[in-house]
Fold this protein.
Amino acid sequence: MFYVATASVLLALILLVSRAIAGPTLFDRVLAANSIGTLAVLFLAALGFLTGRPQWLDVGLTYGLLNLIGTFAVLKFFRHGDLAYDAEDEGD
Amino acid sequence: MSTAVDILSWVLIVPGGFFILTGAVGVVRLPDVYTRMHATSVIDTVGALLLVSGLALQAPSLLVVFKLIVILALLFFTGPVATHAIAQAALEAGVEPQLDEDRRDRIVLAGERNDIQKKQQNPDATGGVQ
């Protein structure tokens, strides 16, 4: 049954990568990248069970946290052109 | 006992994989960013929930179950936050949603609603007539 889980996640990953490459706007790509991150966490979990080494779940947790921060970093960078942008500094 | 747990795992994992694939197909086939966002939420919620709970039934120890629950909680909180940020950024950048019928003039934002209420209370204050 772990084969089924891994295979479906892999297939979904292929579809999402095609959207991330094709995506007409930046936001399509960011959205696809975010979902790829979610699926990577699920893939790591399933693969950990498949190989009988559930320690990979820790890697998945870290990846999930980095995924959120990465999405925000990309959005902030493309909106302000600067990762250190602070709205309160605007008034200076 | 073990067979029953296995069957339950199958019953959870196979629909989980199905919903994940449904979400991925939706991301490829739907027409614009906002509808694709709707498709990815299927992966984040029901797909992840079914798949991870199916895996949790096969876990060798309670620690693994706990880690799976933490992963699930993480996905449940970060998924909507990231989607909301993307939607807001896309609207801010001027990406137009594809609409069958444009009804956005009916949408009243919170700030405008206050203005409308003020206008209704004292209509002379806005001074529309020259």
